[in-house]
Amino acid sequence: MIAPALHLDGSARYDGTPVFSDLSLRVPAGEWTCLLGPSGVGKSTILRLFAGADTGADFDGSFGADDGAPLDGRMALMAQDDLLLPWLDLRANVAIGARLRGEAPDLARAEATLARVGLAGMETRRPAELSGGQRQRVALARTLMEDRPIVLLDEPFSALDARTRSQMQDLTAETLAARTVLLVTHDPAEAARLGHHILIMGPNSVTPVAPPAGPIPRPVDAADVLGAQADLLRQLRGLPE
Fold it and tell me: Are residues 111 and 23 in the same domain?
């Protein structure tokens, strides 16, 4: 599995209203890139463009993988909503990708993946029986199950309590090692822990910020991680609303 770099250059509009203009974004291969910024600047639009999903926006420009090969079939997306199918149990939800492709689902692997996100023994439950945080963990398990070289994450840990969020960050960083990961987050602490590359997106611009030293996931209490978190928050507070 070779994880390529990604690029996007262009402008997007909703009903004639600019979302971003003349934007240039680079996502290095095989590492985590964390994209922060205020709501409405187009972060989720960028993820959906890469994923080939409907954005509702008119995009003028180009995007893709730097190796020139199609993105289709090489990418997994975890959206803000969990998008679980209410009539399927958790095991079937995690294995839904294979079913949609007409393949035999690996239910044993689905159960093992659910166990890795802390949901062992809950395989036969339905989504309605879960809390919001548990549902988000099922969505994360479904994304990990796909095992793609490119992974797009849109606020994947936002519904989790602080302890579980830290645990899922650790697990995801381990599982997605050597993948090309683009993580959209509003949490400076998350970016400071997980970013090999950190980008702050404002109106029509992307500004790189030096990450703390060391491999990911970085310790939550390391002095340079806490310092990077504070610096990112200061920069975000300085962006125009």
Answer: no
